[in-house]
Amino acid sequence: MPLVLLIEDNSDNARLVQRVLANSRFRLMHARDGESGQRMAVEYRPQLILLDLGLPDIEGQKVALFIRQAPELRAVKLVAVTAWPEETGREMVRAYGCDGYIPKPIDVRRFIEQLEELLRT
Amino acid sequence: MRPTRPDADSTLIAADRLSLAQLCDVYNLGRADYLVPMPMNQTRLARYLRQYDVDLSHSLVALQAGQALGLALLGRRGARAWITRLGVAAEARKSGLGRRLVSSLVEEAQRLGCAAVILEVIRENVAARQLFEQLGFRATRELLVLRRPPAPIDRPGRLSGLRSLQHAESLIQLAERQDDPSWLTETASLAAAGPLAGLRAAGSDGQDLWLVYQVNAWELSRMVLCADGPEGLPMAQELLTELHWRHPLKDAVLENLPAADPLLPAYQALGYLRAFTRVEMRLDL
């Protein structure tokens, strides 16, 4: 079962992801801020990290840079989940080393399929 | 400030009646589903209040049934006021709370003798822009938030007479700036943000050529670039090249560069990307 780490400060958004993944093959861990997200990423080495770019302690972009610079996390798929204007959001997250971009609010019908696709690529 | 215009549903109180933790909670609640949420913890909020001269005693929190559901902060510099961090919890929207918060802050600025109120709004936030226009604000310009992820540069800047500036020298340099900064990028904001550094070079025809910035463990930020004259743009590019040559592993963030700034192409040539765009709005009182 692939382990997914969700780094998200908004509890409503986190609950929604938990609900959507509840009966899937994914195991979910949740970090509420950037610092704990970085710590949990190193400790648990998930297959996929879902990263909110707007975090209360550290910018999501900085968390992305940390993950991309950590040798032990080289293989992890990093996906930004953000409400940023799509026109700039896609280019921005790619520049910061993310493998994908899922716009907020998430599409609950497509979410699992999006994660499966990201893990395949 | 005493409570203003209490009614059956909501009351506005001065923001200094809440703790920093409570202010963080109400701010994050109001911004949870915002386009660019920018949540803050207490450390970040305290820094923000200090750097941008936000006066909590003249800022407002909206209460409904005893619960804090809206926030609007007021910064003051001389005869100018700045409205910032406006947010209303999703469940309290479309009730006129945002309008009450903004119009009350405008009244407060007027009472304090301010001649103008300034604010910024994310360009795509159409509802907020319409509200501000209805209250008399007019768009003055677009401001870009640019970012550049760490990326090595293959050479230093081609500059003559290059020297580094320390904090005090950087402030002296900023006293000569000719640009038209936004609230976030005014010298008062930069001076309050912590130690500044700078680069100065000799232009080929005696032009003014310098760059002031802030650098910390992770990031370059608050760049102010001065390069006038006919060779200004290529020289600006060389100053930025030198900066990133010296700091190849730093993320770079540049807030509120006017979209019409003639030196924007220098940033773009160095790989700066547009993160999002704000619209600056002004109301003369």
What does this structure look like?
The complex is a heterodimer of chains A (121) and B (285). Chain A has five helices and five strands. Chain A is an alpha/beta fold and 121 residues long. Chain A has a single domain, classed as Response regulator (Rossmann fold), CATH 3.40.50.2300. Chain A has a five-stranded parallel beta sheet with strand order 2-1-3-4-5, sandwiched between helices. In chain A, helix 2 packs parallel to helix 3 (60-69). The relative contact order of chain A is 0.19. Chain B contains eight helices and twelve strands. A twelve-stranded mixed beta sheet of chain B has the order 1-2-3-4-5-12-6-11-10-9-8-7, with helices on both faces. The longest helix of chain B has 15 residues, at 97-111. The interface between A and B is medium-sized, with 23 and 25 residues.
Question: Which key features would you list for this structure?
Answer:
heterodimer; A: 121 residues; alpha/beta; Rossmann fold; 5-stranded parallel sheet; 5 helices; 43% helix; globular; B: 285 residues; alpha+beta; Aminopeptidase; 8 helices; 34% strand; elongated; disordered N terminus
